[in-house]
Amino acid sequence: MATIKVHLLNFHGPYSHIEIVLENTSSKDKEFYRINRWKTDPPNQSWDSDYELNSCKKYIQEASCVFSFNIEANPDEITREWKNYWNKTQQTASIFGNNCAVATQWFLNKFANIPDPDFLYVSLNHLAFGIVWPSLIPCFVTLPGRIMSNAKFHINVKENPQLLAKYSYLILNINMALTLLTWGFSVLALSIAASVLTGGIASVAIVACVTLGAVSAYGFFKAYNLSSKKIISDCLSDKPLAYTPGQFLSN
């Protein structure tokens, strides 16, 4: 086992991109390794001790956002598992499928014990061309910013466990409230589009409103189910509830 510094790199542009630079701080000469879904060449078999040759310093400096933390892991296991994952998903890699965000989350799940993004917090994440997507509404593609925000949240919770107990229920209720507002807006917009607009514009507007209403409804029930599971879990573990169902935290 070795102490590995994980550098999460988020690049902002017309499209967002996320990748990982790993730094083995336990080796005599610092060794580096890249986790990048879009790298066309097969993954390296070994770690690179030449900082400039590996270009890791360049990638870290050029990233729009960097978040770093330490894990304990076996460097050889990382290279082996990453090579297997890269080969297994090479044919299905795409922006809308196994993209860079999915690959990054795979690593975070396997080696950093960071779960998939959920509804425990709210974030705005870049979709494309300056368009941001709120985390409370399910997205059709896994966003790099969502993975970055999720990693920051869970690392901060690990370092300050009281944060999760204090805010998780409140955030879930906020998510449910916001998704209900979004659903209500979509219904209102749908009625206006159906009565005012005509032709192709009306059709496009109606489809957009129905889609927005559907995903917001899905987001509400997913957050509600997660909230219910947390309440049941706290009851079974004899923990005092921070709130009663449907109410915000009182403190």
Topology:
Layout: E1 2-11, E2 17-24, E3 31-35, H1 51-54, H2 56-62, E4 65-73, H3 75-89, H4 100-112, E5 124-128, E6 131-134, H5 144-159, H6 162-196, H7 199-236
Antiparallel strand pairs: 1-2, 1-4, 2-3, 5-6
Helix pairs in contact: 4-5, 6-7
How would you describe this protein?
With 251 residues, this protein is an alpha+beta fold. It folds into 2 domains: 2-159, no CATH class; 167-236. It has 7 helices and 6 strands. The protein starts with a strand and ends in a 15-residue tail after the last helix.
Q: What is the beta-strand fraction?
A: 15-25%
Tell me the radius of gyration: 21 Å
- Helix and strand succession? EEEHHEHHEEHHH
Strand order of the main beta sheet, please? 3-2-1-4
* Number of spatially distinct domains: 2
Give the helix/strand class.
alpha+beta
Average pLDDT, rounded to a whole number, is: 76
Report the total helices.
7
Largest sheet: 4 strands, antiparallel
Helix content: 40-55%
User: Distance between the terminal alpha carbons, to the nearest Å?
Assistant: 43 Å
Low-confidence runs of at least 5 consecutive residues: 235-251
Q: List how many beta strands DSSP finds.
A: 6
Shape, per Cα inertia axes? elongated
Could you give a quick summary of the protein structure above?
With 251 residues, this protein is of the alpha+beta class. It has helices at residues 51-54, 56-62, 75-89, 100-112, 144-159, 162-196, 199-236, and strands spanning 2-11, 17-24, 31-35, 65-73, 124-128, 131-134.
Structure characteristics:
251 residues; alpha+beta; 2 domains; 4-stranded antiparallel sheet; two-stranded antiparallel ribbon; 51% helix; 16% strand; elongated
